[in-house]
Amino acid sequence: MRSVDLIQKKRDGGELTASELTFLIDGYSRGDIPDYQMSAWAMAVFFRGMTPKETAALTLAMANSGDQVDLGPISGIKVDKHSTGGVGDKTTLILAPLVASAGIPVAKMSGRGLGHTGGTIDKLESIEGFRTELSREKFMNQVNEIGLSVIGQSGNLAPADKKLYALRDVTATVESIPLIASSVMSKKIAAGADAIVLDVKTGSGAFMKTLEDSEKLAQAMVNIGTEVGRNTAAVISDMDQPLGFAIGNALEVQESIETLKGHGPEDLTELCLTLGAHMVVLGGKADTIAEARKLLEERISSGAALAKFKSFVSAQGGDPSIVDAPDRLPQAPVVIEVKASIAGFVNAIEAEQLGLAAMLLGAGRATKDAVIDYAVGVMLCKKVGDAVAAGETIALLHVREENGATAEVSERVRQAYNIQDYKPEHRALLLSVITAAGIERYT
Ligand code: URA
């Protein structure tokens, strides 16, 4: 087999076989196939696309390129969840204890944040003492004992994807649906879950800007899951504004605790109940989404979900007293009000700009090795649809000190709010759901 022939076949619109794709991925991983040939192939895929069969074969080849986590020692159906990334997205902090309290074992590996989106691991580490590096054995034992564990990604999961993603990043080939779908799913499959629920964002703050493209991406990922025997469901939600009010590590932990107590923001609560209901159905603990949702609502109102969060924090070395005394979480010494310069209605909030604002305050990393300040961040006071008076506070910056840099961040946050003199049409948060059975639009 020769790479050049496979590049040509794809360039001309052909379908590569599983063994041809494995040849490319294995050869590229070993360094036998050079970057320039892999780039040419990725560009051919960008223009020609891939069939569902090709996409599944590529995913498996990448999943097989490194460690495969065997969650076999954990009893029950393990359901993983993945989000395509969002600002203020703390759903894992809520979903993991919530679905665990409904009897679904959660054995989750999460990442750290880079750029404008925060990582679950950083958020958890804002709880004093919380450890995210556990041995595989301790990780599995904890899931068997208390029903959940969340750790940092360890080992060598899908290294071929890592190498290919870095190449795509510099060859303008990231925005290809089969390449994104196979990249995401290769890591999920290597991480060992039996079933996967995907939280696919759409809108200005998301990878996919239109509902149509988001649905195509979700469909491609569900097809892969189905093809490789992992039950997969995808929920598409709007990302035209941050999720909830809090952006920043400790602030997001606090908002997650409020949500587990049943007092969380409406959008965040709704998304968690919907994603959670799909996890419960795939995990075999309910037959219908409506039944699963009721079960989860009961787990919140009875306090079972919150109790699960507490035991999760304790089990991983964190201080569980933060649940009842959130002021024990890291607190920023200074809070600055950001005020609206004009009156009107909030029509949109640029999520990415707010993510960048939080990062500039120190809540995120501009580079891989940057150190995070867990206490700082942005709290929104107004969301899309809200009325604002001129001079009214629209957001609060939690900072170490007030200086020129925080003044710039204030201005960035003010600019991220699009205020008009009319009330915008209501936009639904949840747009569609895609399962092996097909697509269902909420609106
Ligand atoms: N996230 C991934 O993991 N892979 C992509 O290709 C794009 C986003």
Strand order of the largest sheet: 1-4-5-13-14
Q: Provide the gyration radius in Å.
A: 22 Å
Could you tell me which ligands this complex binds, including any ions or cofactors? uracil
Q: Bin the strand percentage.
A: 15-25%
* Helical percentage: 40-55%
Class from helix and strand fractions: alpha+beta
| General form | globular
Q: Treating each run of at least 4 consecutive H or I residues as one helix, how many helices?
A: 16
Let me know the average pLDDT.
Answer: 94
Q: Mind summarizing the main beta sheet?
A: 5 strands, mixed
Given as residue ranges, the uncertain stretches (5+ residues, pLDDT < 50) are none
Provide an overview of this structure.
This protein is an alpha+beta fold. Helix content is 44%, strand content 16%. It contains 16 helices and 14 strands. It has helices at 3-11, 18-30, 35-48, 52-63, 91-100, 120-125, 136-146, 159-169, 177-190, 211-227, 249-260, 266-282, 289-301, 304-315, 351-361, 404-416; strands at 79-83, 106-110, 148-152, 195-202, 231-238, 246-247, 334-339, 344-349, 377-380, 387-388, 393-399, 417-420, 430-435, 438-441. The strands form four sheets. The chain has a five-stranded mixed sheet with strand order 1-4-5-13-14, with helices on both faces. Strands 6-9-11-7 form a four-stranded antiparallel sheet. α2 crosses α8. The termini are far apart. 52% of the residues are buried. The model has no long low-confidence stretch (mean pLDDT 94). Bound molecules: uracil. Uracil binds at residues 165, 174, 179-180, 183-184.
